[in-house]
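Subgroup meeting minutes
Present: P.N., E.W., G.H.
Scribe: E.W.

1. P.N. recapped why we're keeping a running log of single-chain structure predictions: easier to compare across weeks, and new members can see raw inputs and outputs side by side.
2. G.H. added today's entry (382 aa).
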Amino acid sequence: MYETWIKGRNAINGFLYQYAAKPLFFLFDPEDTHNLLTLKGRFLGSNPLTRGLIAFFFGYQNKKLEQTIAGIRFPNPLGLAAGFDKDAHLTAILPAVGFGYAEVGSITGEPCQGNPRPRLWRLKQSKGLVIYYGLKNQGCAVIAGKLKNKKFTIPIGTSVAMTNCAKNLDINEAIKDYAKAFRAFAAIGAYTTVNISCPNAQGGQPFSDPANLDRLLSELDKITTTKPIFLKMSPDLSREQIDLILDMVRKHRVNGFICTNLTKNRNNPKIVEKNVPAKGGISGKPVEDLSNDLIRYLYKKIGNQYVIIGCGGIFSAADAYKKIKAGASLLQMITGLIFEGPQVISAINQGLVKLLKQDGYQNISEAVGTDSKMTITYDQRT
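Output recorded in log:
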């Protein structure tokens, strides 16, 4: 009865979003729409009554989706990626919407206004976004003060990055900036993500270079924390660069990888539009295959030694399951939420339960990496 109710509820919510809410939202500038929805989310999360109503209309629970990873209990594997809740305004409402965890930020050492507007575009045909925010956020001092001593009902991760400013073109200054943000959240939240792959900051992505990353992680190693640490990877790295990073991080306090951030590559067959803004990184369906390929590659290289979090192009349970079977233990999304509506969270989770049952698994953890394991076995035999 419960599963039938959830399925019917999601079908109604999906219809209303696709034919009423989404056409209205897409009439307006995407950043203005995002800001408006953030204000609504803050209000809805401000009291138990509205949180309860949202949970009734959008929540979903199933024990098959529960996991303990890196010492953290996740009620389901689907999380909100960093980049949506930049200033940690929505941590109270996100559990009610159905997320199993969420990542706030990215948060920088200093307050950052980001790049000039316009800095967000929809790729409607490609089901993607072009994002050029440039790490807009209130800075680590303000956001840490907001979250300090706050109790969360789902795991909340904190993504840290370097402030988007000319000063951080100097690698030494950039490392200090990362360290400041990292230190501010050493005891806040469930885990920390070190975002080394933002495509929209001055100076590019200097810490995708293994030597620079080694210096950064050496500095972060000095900061006391009990939280797991993940690296957010670019989808545009070569396999050689990935291998060098893997060899290097073994010396440091790294627990896993998020695959992936935005792609800068415009020569992507999944990009349908002809007039794509030249600046910014691309999310959604254009990054899906890049994300999946990196997940598979990492899983074959490292197996269960590190946690792999899949991010990019998740719009359905089938999309999510593909990442799980490729080797991701956890998932993150933003663009699919924007294109499909908030009911997609519970729809994906319910769909995952159905797929697990079809494959004879009792828990989502049993499906992790099964496609990649089969490939490894085949490769070894040949």
